[in-house]
Amino acid sequence: MLDVAVIEDPATAEVTLDPVRMRLLAELAEPGSATTLAAKVGLPRQKVNYHLRLLEQHGLVELAEERRRGNMTERVMRATAASYVISPVALSAVQPDPARAPDRLSARWLLAVAARLVRDVGNLITGASKAGKRVATFAVDGEVRFASAADRAAFAEELATTVAGLVAKYHDESAAGGRAHRVVVAVHPSIPEE
Question: What is the pTM of this model?
Fold first, then answer.
């Protein structure tokens, strides 16, 4: 089971957004059959089977094992990932584009940049999985509490200057065999976790 799977297909995204299927995916972190799932979610086994088949057709669940139960075979399924992310690629023509309105201070632009990050890293994960390789990435995640808006603005300016200095120091346009990497740094108000 993957830790995170990226959904790029619109039809697959649509399948995952159904509340019943979403619940089944969550339950299938541990393998289960239509019978055991029906008891957990309070639906008839036939209805659960219908949803499982749709999830299986879209690669969101897979067969874990088959068990003989009298004169029938019980299919035990499991989710293909612990969690799923829907890539902006699934939105195709209406996916956010940071090039439309580049504004470092705009929350909407930050969201477009984040969507591009999800899209790009999702594509990298998909390609790397097919090639049996890992993706070389790095991320920093932290929290800072500012005493004032002026401190926040000063922090943002110093951060931008520092990152620009690092980019200038290490960027080598003429490096034979070099590979470009995107750098994304974001600052936004924290949302308390519930």
Answer: 0.77
CB atoms within 10 A of CB 32: 22
Q: What angle do CA 22, 7, 117 make, to 5 degrees?
A: 120
Pairing state of beta strands 61-69 and 72-79? Answer: antiparallel
Give the pair of three-digit tokens for residue 170. Answer: 């290490």
Angle at 66 between CA 64 and CA 72, to 5 degrees: 150
Strands 32-33 and 72-79, sheet pairing: antiparallel
pLDDT at position 194 over 80: no
User: pLDDT tier at 104 (50, 70, 90 boundaries)?
Assistant: confident
Sheet with 32-33, side-by-side order of all strands = 32-33, 72-79, 61-69
Distances (CA, A) of 66 to 26, 69, 88: 21, 9, 36
